[in-house]
Design a protein that fits this description.
rod-shaped, 3 helices, mainly beta, 504 residues
Length: 504
């Protein structure tokens, strides 16, 4: 119950004056990860102060009311933390939506027992030396008390005047029963509401409000567009979002989101880099990197069972476990089938055929020593040695034919290649050796004619003649002239003539 002063004009500047830093934050949870209403307590000047710390126990859900590892507070669970432990004199410690301490209602002055600027009271010190008689002149005694925020005086401890209780306003009373002496919430400095009378005949302003005047005052977290510097982020929610003020001058955080504040709140499996102690292993996978999606749910898409040696769903193999597969079972011939680091088959060691099994299979010309009956001759060569390549194709490098320009075994020559032979190699002294089309030597143009020596087959050679060297010896009596030897070593009688009447 909040009691008003006897002098109404004095109320706005005392009862409702807020001390700097003496606001009280009240934290609520909506229990979901997407955001929710989180009205905070009385407003005040200045910005919200937060501190973080590590609570005890194992990782838990921010908002479950229990202070867990990584949380400075949770709901009303502050552990041993107070405004004083945070270095303040007094005030009320709060807890934000991200489980961080809110020291905005802590004060360096409120609680020190001395009146400081902006305070209506502090402990037993009251502005203007207020007493019960200052508020209720007819009160025989009693005691005033000061609110924790040093911003309001509570007169409920004052004794009622002797005339109090008859239902009629008397001197020394502010009111009596339903008789408010014409006073209203507005007349005692509030915007609106229902003014009542307390049992000790002092005004009970608990039903009055200043909400709606556009200024944040005692008991208000905001007022209209004035959010008192608060934002979704300052209340422990994720950056962004829309914080609004309700008609009751309380903050409405339903447009704010808990997802993104770095704490795992109710309905969330994770939040950003905070996986709440979870890993791929804890999710039943062998290895990988567990992630957190934009909806603050665990994302195991980068987790895998690849590497555990078992062929699990979505895997073709795992390490040395090929699940009974081979190059042959995959229709890739022979070779070495292996497994990649991503548990997929690596068939680069397969030949993509059955080459190497000694059988000439479809698509093969040969296989090892099996030439399938082929030879150099069947490939159009004259002779040689046919072999098989490693890819099961013919190797005709050892085959040859007459006409290739090489003097191969069984050939005397090949085209212009006389293998170093000449007419002299065959006993001739002159002429030009050639090669027949069957790669045998042709000596038809070789000759000894012209060496001046009568050789076999020559009629003459130079001045050497076989037998006759004159016309009369060659033709007989009465022939005259001289025989000649042609360049082909045959006798020419072109210069011989017949004269039977030599004496005529």
């Amino acid at each position: 119950m909040r009691l008003a002063w006897p002098t109404l004009s004095f109320l706005p500047c005392l009862v409702f004056t807020l001390a700097v830093g003496c606001t009280v934050k009240v934290r609520n949870y909506d229990g979901e990860g997407g955001g929710g209403s989180d009205p905070t307590g009385s407003g005040g000047s200045g910005t919200t102060g937060t501190t973080t710390g590590a609570g005890g126990g194992s990782p838990g859900i921010c908002g479950d009311g229990a202070r867990n590892t990584g949380e400075a507070c949770d709901g009303d669970d502050f552990g041993t933390e107070t405004c004083q432990s945070q270095g303040f004199v007094g005030g009320v410690l709060g807890c934000l939506a991200n489980c961080a301490l809110d020291t905005s209602a802590c004060s360096m002055t409120c609680g020190n027992g001395a009146l400081d600027e902006g305070e209506l009271c502090d402990g037993q010190a009251f502005a203007n030396d207020l007493t019960c008689q200052s508020i209720l002149p007819g009160s025989p005694g009693g005691s005033l008390s000061c609110s924790a925020s040093c911003s309001a005086v509570d007169a409920s401890g004052c004794q009622a005047p002797l005339t109090c209780g008859d239902g009629v306003f008397d001197q020394g009373e502010q009111c009596d029963g339903l008789d408010l002496n014409g006073a209203t919430c507005a007349s005692v400095g509030f915007a609106s509401g229902n003014l009542a009378c307390a049992a000790n005949c002092a005004f009970d302003t608990s039903g009055c409000t200043t909400c709606g005047n556009g200024m944040v005052q005692s008991g208000e977290a905001c007022d209209g567009p004035d959010l008192n510097g608060a934002s979704c982020q300052s209340l422990g929610y994720a950056p962004g979002g829309t914080l609004v003020c309700t008609s009751a001058c309380q903050l409405d955080a339903s447009g704010c989101s808990l997802c993104g504040n770095g704490q795992v709140n109710g309905g969330e499996g994770c939040d950003g880099g905070n996986l709440n102690g979870q890993s791929c292993s804890s999710q039943g996978y062998y290895a990988g990197n567990l992630g957190c999606n934009g909806s603050c749910q665990l994302d195991p898409s980068n987790c895998t069972n690849c590497g555990n040696g078992n062929v699990d769903g979505g895997e073709q193999c795992d390490g040395g476990n090929l699940n009974g597969s081979s190059c042959g079972s995959l229709g890739l011939g022979i070779g070495n089938l292996t497994c990649t680091g991503s548990c997929a088959f690596d068939a680069t060691g397969c030949t993509n055929s059955y080459c190497g099994n000694g059988n000439v299979d479809a698509g093969e010309q040969c296989d090892g020593g099996n030439l399938n009956g082929a030879g150099c001759g069947t490939l159009g060569y004259g002779a040689g040695s046919l072999s098989c390549n490693g890819n099961c194709t013919f190797n005709a490098g050892g085959c040859y034919s007459c006409g290739d320009g090489n003097v191969n075994p069984g050939e005397e020559c090949d085209g212009g290649n006389l293998n170093g032979l000449s007419c002299g190699s065959y006993g001739y002294s002159l002429g030009s050796l050639s090669c027949n089309s069957n790669c045998t030597v042709n000596v038809g143009l070789c000759s000894n004619c012209g060496n001046g020596v009568l050789d076999s087959g020559e009629e003459c050679d130079g001045y050497q003649f076989q037998g006759c060297s004159t016309c009369d010896c060659y033709y007989g009596y009465e022939w005259y002239g001289g025989l000649e030897c042609t360049s082909s070593c045959t006798i020419s009688a072109a210069n011989c003539y017949y004269n039977p009447c030599w004496y005529c």
